[in-house]
Amino acid sequence: MEHKDAKQIDAKGKDYRTLNKEIRESVNDGINYITVKNVLGQRFIADGIKNRTLRISIFGVAGGDLGAFMDGPTIYVRGNAEHAPGNTMSSGTIIVDGDAGDCVGHSMRGGKIFVKGSVGYRVGIHMKQFQERFPTIIIGGSAYSFLGEYMAGGIIVVLGQNCTKPVGSYVGTGIHGGTIYVAGVVDDNDLGVAASKKEFTDEDRSIVSALIDEYNQHFDSSISIDELTFTKIQPSSKRPFSNLYTMEG
Hints:
The chain has 249 residues and is of the alpha/beta class. The chain is built from two helices and eleven strands, in the order E-H-E-E-E-E-E-E-E-E-E-H-E. The protein is 12% helix and 27% strand. The longest helix has 18 residues, at 202-219.
C-alpha cells in the first residue's frame, strides 16, 4: 500500500551511520512509512526514535541493537535480525520474519517482539515492567540457554515450532518477576536457579491464546493453542539470591 508520506531507502553499500542519519532525517521530515532495502548488517537502525505512527520495513539482515531505546515505532524485518533487537525499548513492536540472535529484548521495558523462527542465547535478559509498561516476546521456534535470565517482569512465549527441544539449559536463571511460557516439556534439570514450574491456569491460557493470535496475524500462520501443552515458569522467590548476602546491625 502506497502512502503519500512514504519513502524508500536503499542501504546497499552504506555505512550504518549514513543509513541511520538518512532514516532519522526522513522521520524529522514527517515521513511515517519507510522501506529500507538491501540491508546487510547495518546496526542501530531506528535506535531511540520516539514516534508512534512510524512504520519501517527492513529487507535483508538487520544488524545489532535494532530498535534499541525506541518508543513507539513498528519495525518489520523481512529477513533475519542479529543480536539484541529491542534492547531497552520502551514501547512499539518489532516483527522478525526469520530468526534472531542473542539477547533479544535485552533490558526491554515495554512493547512487543515477535520472531517467526528461533533465537539465540540470553533472550529476555533483565526484562522489566512498570505500571503500563509490559514487555512481551513471542518466539515461534526455539530459544537457546539462559532464556529469561534475571527477568524482572513481562512475558516470554516459546512456541517450539519445527524443533525437537524448545529451550536450552538454565531457563529463568535468577528470575524474580514475569512469566515464561514454553510449549512442550521443560526438564527440571534445564531450570536455572530461582526458576520453578507453576500451574498453567485458565487465565494463562487466555493470555497465551491472545498472543498466539497476534503471532498468526503477523506471519499468516495458523498455530492453535489447542494443539499445544505449555510449561509455565515463574520465580520461586522474589529474592532468589538473598541467602548469599548478610545484614548486620
